[in-house]
Sequence to fold (490 residues):
Amino acid sequence: MRNSSSSLLRALSLLDAFDKGDGELTLTELADRAGLPKSTAHRLVGDLVRWRALERTPDGLRLGMRLFELGHLVPSPRELRDIALPYLEDLHTTTRKTVNLAVRDGIDIVYVEKLLAPNEPVPHSRAGGRLPMHCTALGKAILAYSPPTLLDEVVAAGLRRMTPKTIQDPRALRTELAAVRERRIAYDVEESRIGLHCVAAPLFDRRGEVVAAVSVTGMQSRSTARHLAPAVLTASLSLSRQLGA
Amino acid sequence: MRNSSSSLLRALSLLDAFDKGDGELTLTELADRAGLPKSTAHRLVGDLVRWRALERTPDGLRLGMRLFELGHLVPSPRELRDIALPYLEDLHTTTRKTVNLAVRDGIDIVYVEKLLAPNEPVPHSRAGGRLPMHCTALGKAILAYSPPTLLDEVVAAGLRRMTPKTIQDPRALRTELAAVRERRIAYDVEESRIGLHCVAAPLFDRRGEVVAAVSVTGMQSRSTARHLAPAVLTASLSLSRQLGA
DNA sequence: AGCCTCCGTTCCGACATGCGGAACTCCAGC
DNA sequence: GCTGGAGTTCCGCATGTCGGAACGGAGGCT
Fold:
């Protein structure tokens, strides 16, 4: 057997073809990216369009409204967002910086909400976006309070270098995480993008487990980042309390 | 043959089972709602979990992060939201009411963004939510500027009654839409929910077609609604210009 | 304890259904 | 026109899907 995917997984791989940025693809491109014969892709696309996972446009196909709807029904980000939003807004108005909320998904973080700073240029991440844990303040805040097996997974997956300052040595990451636990605050000093500084703090649920993190970010200097730490920490404590910790 | 669904559509019907509000379902419930035998559902769910469309929890299944991610990649709401957000924020701060942005999908509207009023209790709609066009200000604003065949579709689908004030007579709807065109403003006077008033205006793209609508809503009186109309109209004009109209 | 219910999981034979190469059509552009 | 690349249709083969039935395990009620 050529590959052990079920028919369903093959169909879903068509949707995967869209997460590399492009908003609109032609059937042939789609078939190529998913590694499916054109005629198979054609049939599957027909069903996906019927279900509105995809929409036909004058010149191609794009993700459809049904996915938009379902995406907003996903419970874990939705419940968290509903509770957190007022706190994020407070942080946003007091700091006047970009505020982020992210949850862990596997060994990545996924942005759940992002309140942009008034003058923010093009942001490097967006709600729904995914970034590795080891190179973001949000990720390190979560990782520092997670069971050690998770760190092993992260290391095993390879500490991918995003900028010259990305931590790539597992030992360095380990001591960094110890420092995070010391302060209850994680920093990202141009580790995911040059020029970008970030301060994050973990959020705990009623079982005392980290489920998410908040951060304030912007192009400010390192000292500005330190200066914002108390605000982030305070918000994270209030929010953790609200979550039942 | 029991039903002419392909295997793929049957699998997707499992996801449909979640949009009736419940965040978490058991495999058996899921199979029942989708009308599938348990063993078939079991196999399909396995693949959906593998793809992260679903997640296993201690006691059931729920929608997974992959859907959250993909939902945020859907181009039509995403592009619109990115452009509109600053305008919505202006409207939000000047009116201090709940501000909505919605697009048309078939004969419904789907909320793309919602900025809650500071003191808003539980809102009756949310981003990603869907409501019929004939009973909402947003829907009527869009419908009034759409080709007449769309109105026919809406009427053919039946003007479902949501409150005692919902317009149920096709003739009444037709004259209402003429009035909307007169003013470039649509009102919802407790037609989707008792006590709820709403003012909306349509948004046009570069081809001059309605693609969306903005609204301000809240529990205010009818006169308050009228009073907010100029603000909504102004925002809609600026925004349409920004969209290239 | 014992029983009972309701959950998820596994098995397997029969058969429908998805598969995909190849051939066809339709534009758009040298 | 012709050529390239788009989307669509066809159809026979066999593969993968289907689903009834039986199993196992985790509670809950008497």
Q: What stands out?
A: Chain A is about 45% helix and 20% strand.
